[in-house]
Amino acid sequence: MQAIELTPTSYIVLGLLNQAGETTPYRLKQMVDASVGHFWSLHRSQLHAEPARLARAGYLSERQEPAGRRRKRYALTDRGKEALAVWVATPTEQFTELRDLAFLKLFFGTDPSAQANAQLTVLRPLLETYETMLAAARSDDRFTGDAQRGPLRTLQAGIDQTRSAIGTWERIAGESRSASR
Fold first, then answer.
1. Model's pTM, two decimal places?
2. Sorting pLDDT into bands at 50, 70 and 90, what band is 144?
3. I need a surface site. Which of 3, 21, 72, 130 has the fewest CB within 10 A?
4. Lowest mean pLDDT among 5-14, 134-143, 159-168
5. Looking at the domain that runs over 8-89, which CATH code has it been given?
6. What residues does 63 pair with on adjacent strands?
7. Which sign does the torsion angle of CA 20, 24, 26, 32 carry?
8. Radius of gyration (C-alpha) of the chain in whole angstroms
């Protein structure tokens, strides 16, 4: 086993495998797209490389399917479960990372009205999607236990942030309209 530094991507893989049991990197990508990918960006190629790296370090077991596509399947080891448990139990004091291309363009002088309209076109349907997901999760018996409150709280936080972003871009659009009069 090699000593490695665990990254946020490492913990995403460990956490999703904790939920899914044994699975493939392709399935991990699908799981990211349906869950943490809504608030944590990562290169999808990392989801193919990271499980192998974690397996070499003893955090995952690796098994190749004997027939068919012969995909590699990964599962948590005791070491992986322990690392995930320690990480989850340790609160973070890191400030939210923000990488927003629209804000970057706004900073450098894009047309604020056009940028606001573009963002609102994306954010309003996103809010509807999140609200639909929350309603579905609340009616799903799998989301009633303490272990599943995290995904519900995270989804509600996404709703809160999206509403805030909509308010911000509506304000920017209004300021732009007022300035052009």
1. 0.75
2. low
3. 3
4. 134-143
5. 1.10.10.10
6. 73
7. positive
8. 20
Write the secondary structure of the chain as one string of H (helix), E (strand) and C (coil): CCCCCCCHHHHHHHHHHHHHCCECHHHHHHHHHHCHHHCCCCCCCHHHHHHHHHHHCCCEEEEECCCCCCCEEEEECHHHHHHHHHHHHCCCCCCCCCCCHHHHHHHCCCCHHHHHHHHHHHHHHHHHHHHHHHHHHHCCHHHCCHHHHHHHHHHHHHHHHHHHHHHHHHHHHHHHHHHCC
Domains in the chain: boundaries: 8-89, 101-179
Q: What is the mean pLDDT of the chain?
A: 89
Token couple for 104: 């970057």
CA distance 91 to 62: 30
> Who's near 117: CB < 8 A, 6+ residues apart?
173
Q: Kindly report, residue by residue over 16-39, the tens digit of the pLDDT.
A: 999 989 999 999 999 998 888 888
